[in-house]
Write a structure and sequence with these properties.
This protein is of the alpha+beta class and about 450 residues long. The chain has 17 helices and 16 strands. The protein has helices spanning about 15-35, 50, 55-60, 85-95, 105-110, 155-175, 185-195, 200-205, 210-225, 230-240, 245-255, 260-275, 340-350, 370-385, 400-410, 420-425, 445-450, and strands spanning about 40, 45, 65, 95-100, 120-130, 140-150, 175-185, 285, 300-305, 315-320, 335-340, 365-370, 390-395, 415-420, 430-435, 440-445. The chain has an 8-stranded mixed sheet with strand order 1-5-6-11-10-9-7-8. A 5-stranded mixed sheet has the order 13-12-14-15-16, sandwiched between helices. Strand 12 (about 365-370), helix 14 (about 370-385) and strand 13 form a beta-alpha-beta unit. It is elongated, with a radius of gyration of 28 Å.
């Protein structure tokens, strides 16, 4: 009989892995709270009409659709079942879908609950999302996002705060990162300059892949999207623009002289960088003109974060979205947010060996006993230790001490309290440090103190 399996692009998590994931979530959650963000949750599934058209054509293809319950073909005529028009058919038989990200559902949430929240509204959300992508290292079909957003404010201080939040999170995790920023207005100005203003989406989707597929393939994709060879040629020196952030902006200001939109993007970027000038970020901060964040809803600053010591995709990103709530009927509400990819962060921490050796939530001490008398003696001690905030276990079965010690080793329990007749008589335990191998007789009253040393 074959073993059961799970869908490709999804994973089970063992207890040790869950400890590590919770370490990531707790670290990010603590930073979110420190910056004044409040937690919300939204359903795993949304109406498909909420999701469609928000991520571009490529994003729409990656949506997981949920078949209507019961007879999903009920009410669909034979003619409408023609598979040659799959898009129209799926709209009728799958009216709901799994969320692709947390931002679009959040925009829906803001519109739906606008009378119950205070603007500017600072929210955080830690929940799974689903994408029908091709599974590979660092890319999964089910994964967690940890989002922080500010809506109801046009101030660029919000972008500054989110960059500081990013720096704080990765500083806590010990990951050396590079923060890249750009502005969709600058990209729109570049599209104007090369005479392809109406192809801004095609251009940004293509150049956003520069790191993944290289310049030649980006140019090939641009050509396939109908961008003229002359426009592609004009684009090359702009994408390869060198210098520090100030020099790039100075060059751009000259290049985009005729573009009001481009100049606005340059001005916004300069403002953000000026606010951060005395911030002393641990991360490097770079203006990257190839950064496009190929999602249609970004309208201003865009942000992406990469680990400097591990070859993997972006581990955080976000940006400004001025128009997102408008599609749900609420005009004039600007927002900006960032998302942390918990699964990729996990892979980076694992690769670099940066996870804590012991989790505070894991068992700290195991009571190993020889007989029933030892169990009766140990049980009230275990209860007392737990009341003091220490995770403790009492081995439940009749087993040799060697087996109990192996159990502690397998679970990476740092201390074992061995209880025999002599320990019972002296109201103590033989406390063994499983890392050093040292063991000594410790009175009941001093067990917690010894563990916390």
């Amino acid at each position: 009989m074959s073993k059961p399996s799970i869908p490709k692009g999804t994973r089970d998590f063992l207890p040790v892995e869950m400890e590590r994931r919770n370490y990531i979530f707790d670290t990010i959650r603590e930073a979110f709270r420190k910056f004044g963000f409040l937690q919300i949750e939204t359903p795993a599934m949304e109406n498909i009409s909420t999701l469609l058209g928000k991520y571009g054509d490529e994003g729409d293809k990656l949506l997981f659709r949920i078949l209507n319950s019961g007879n999903f073909l009920d009410g669909v005529s034979t003619a409408e079942q023609d598979v040659s028009n799959v898009r129209e058919l799926t709209l009728k038989i799958a009216e709901k879908g799994l969320r692709y990200d947390l931002t679009v559902p959040f925009a829906r949430f803001v519109v739906q609950h606008r009378d119950a929240i205070t603007f500017p509204f600072r929210r955080y959300q830690i929940q799974p999302v689903w994408r029908a992508d091709r599974p590979q290292r660092g890319r999964y079909r089910e994964f967690y996002q940890c989002d922080a957003d500010i809506v109801g404010s046009d101030s660029l201080l919000n972008e500054v705060e989110l960059i500081e939040l990013i720096d704080d999170v990765f500083g806590r995790l010990g990951i050396n990162v590079s923060i890249k920023i750009n502005n969709r207005k600058i990209l729109a100005g570049i599209a104007e300059l090369i005479g392809e203003a109406d192809k801004i989406t095609d251009i940004t989707v293509a150049i956003d892949k520069l790191d993944k597929i290289g310049l030649d393939n980006v140019n090939k994709e641009l050509e396939e999207k109908g961008i003229s060879p002359e426009s592609i040629e004009l684009l090359q020196p702009i994408l390869m623009l060198g210098g520090d952030n100030g020099e790039k902006l100075d060059k751009l200001r000259h290049i985009l002289t005729a573009s009001t939109m481009g100049q606005k993007g340059i001005e916004e970027t300069e403002t953000i960088l000026s606010y951060l000038a005395d911030c002393r970020l641990a991360a490097s901060l770079e203006l990257d003109l190839t950064l496009a964040r190929g999602l249609n809803y970004y309208t201003g600053a865009i942000i992406e974060v990469k680990a400097r010591d591990v070859q993997i995709g972006s581990i955080s990103g976000g940006g400004r979205y001025d128009n997102l709530t408008g599609v749900f009927g609420l005009q004039g509400v600007s927002g900006v947010g960032v998302s942390f990819g918990a699964d990729r962060i996990y892979d980076v921490l694992d690769t670099l060996g940066l996870f804590p050796t012991h989790s505070a939530a894991a068992t700290q001490i195991l009571f190993a006993v020889f007989d029933e008398e030892g169990r009766k003696y140990s049980l009230p001690i275990v209860r007392s230790i737990r009341r003091k905030g220490i995770a403790a276990e009492l081995y439940p079965d009749n087993a040799k001490i060697k087996k109990q010690m192996q159990y502690a080793n397998d679970k990476r329990i740092p201390f074992v309290a061995i209880v025999g007749d002599e320990e019972i008589k002296s109201h103590s335990v033989m406390l063994k440090n499983m890392e050093t191998g040292e063991q000594k007789l410790v009175s009941i009253d001093n067990i917690v103190q010894e563990i916390r040393l």
